[in-house]
Amino acid sequence: MKKLLSILAGVLVLGTFAGTVVYLWSKSQKPPTLFETASPHRADIVKKTVATGSVVPRKEVEIKPQVSGILETLHVEPGQTVRRGDPIARIRVIPQMAQLASAESRVELASVNVENAEREYQRLETLRAQGIVSDEAFRRAEVDRARSLAEAQAARDSLDVVRSGTTARAADSASTLVRATIDGTVLEVPVEEGRSVIEANTFNDGTTIATVADMSELVFKGRIDESEVGKLRPGMELELTIGAIENARFRATLEHIAPKGKEENGAIQFEIRAALHREPTALIRANYSANADIVLDRRDQVLAIEEALLEFVDGKAWAEVETAPQVFERREVGTGLSDGITIEILSGLTESERVKSKTPPSGPPRG
């Protein structure tokens, strides 16, 4: 009986030891790695580039005075709509003393000439009636009288111009009245009443009284990198997103690409311009910042797969295709257009085949 118990105890110890060894061995074994797979599918692939810029009016002009002086009256304010010829402001001319003195002297001299010519005319007219003076001499006196009257009027006009910047006869076209040169909206009035303004001349651009723009015709002006500019052509469609207008996209047509680039932050940028197809209900203000998506190329409903599932070596694309459950073979595939996430498959794969993921998932937790 004791011998039987000893045998049973030995068997129990051996069984416990064997079970422990088996348990520890099983714990030390790595679980089989199960790779995820994916199949090619039909998709639209669109290759885009993005240009940053702003939406601005096509026609925007700065209204400047034709004379220098003091801004006496402003007739407009930002946001107001004006027509061509509408008054923008009135300038009060401050005469220069030297010019004023010269103009007054000219008027006095012209008055003396008029009096002298008038007396001579009256004298010859009396002598002509008596038959003493010829008709030719009388006509010369008549011409001199008319000339002196014209010179007197010109002198008075010059004095008016020096004093007030205009004449009584040219009140409707006075240079002191600044008028709008185009139909549009007043975007900015950078001056205030009472400020000195300068006329535009050879040496000075002049003081801007107001900025007027036609807001019915807007364009997108942006910049694009030199690596992408060679793929653009006038007439291409753009899709604009404006930061200040949420959940709205606008269409535009590319119409100009700058022939010369400019360096910005160490990169060469080319300016582009696109005509905006404005929505009637959208309120777009000048200089809104915008981004333009430009479609460089596209493929519709082609066989495609995630680009991350492929391996590119020496300009060739390779995929590991599943031939049996969790058994893969390396195969070269032909590729086409890519948008950076999805790539077109031209050859080497079908929709029914599955491709191994390059990054395997973690194995199941050990028990």
Note down, in words, how this protein is organized:
The structure is a single chain. With 367 residues, the chain is of the alpha+beta class. The chain folds into 4 domains: 37-44 and 300-356, Beta Barrel (conserved putative lor/sdh protein from methanococcus maripaludis s2 fold), CATH 2.40.420.20; 49-57 and 216-297, Beta Barrel (Elongation Factor Tu (Ef-tu), domain 3); 65-93 and 174-213, RNA polymerase II/Efflux pump adaptor protein, barrel-sandwich hybrid domain (OB fold (Dihydrolipoamide Acetyltransferase, E2P), Beta Barrel); 97-164, Helix hairpin bin (Helix Hairpins), CATH 1.10.287. The chain is built from 4 helices and 21 strands. It has helices at residues 2-28, 97-129, 135-164, 226-229; strands spanning 37-38, 41-57, 60-63, 69-74, 81-82, 87-92, 177-179, 184-188, 196-197, 210-213, 218-225, 237-242, 249-257, 262-264, 267-277, 288-306, 311-313, 316-324, 327-338, 342-347, 355-356. The protein has a 6-stranded antiparallel beta barrel with strand order 2-11-15-13-12-16. The chain has a 4-stranded antiparallel sheet with strand order 3-10-8-5, with no helix packed on it. The protein has a 4-stranded antiparallel sheet with strand order 7-6-4-9, with no helix packed on it. It is rod-shaped, with a radius of gyration of 45 Å.
At the fourth level of CATH, the homologous superfamily of the largest domain is Efflux pump adaptor protein, beta barrel domain
Average pLDDT, to the nearest integer?
82
Strand order of the largest sheet: 2-11-15-13-12-16
Annotated CATH topology of the largest domain: Elongation Factor Tu (Ef-tu), domain 3
The topology string of helices and strands comes to: HEEEEEEHHEEEEEHEEEEEEEEEE
Name of the top-level CATH class of the largest domain: Mainly Beta
Spatial shape: rod-shaped
* Total count of strands: 21
| Low-pLDDT ranges | 363-367
> What gap, in angstroms, lies between the N and C termini?
41 Å
Helices, by number, come to 4
What amount of the residues lies in strands?
35-45%
> What would you call the structural class?
alpha+beta
Estimate percent helicity. Answer: 25-40%
How many discrete structural domains? Answer: 4
Biggest sheet, in brief?
A: 6 strands, antiparallel, barrel
Which CATH architecture of the largest domain would you pick?
Beta Barrel
Computed CA radius of gyration, to the nearest angstrom? 45 Å
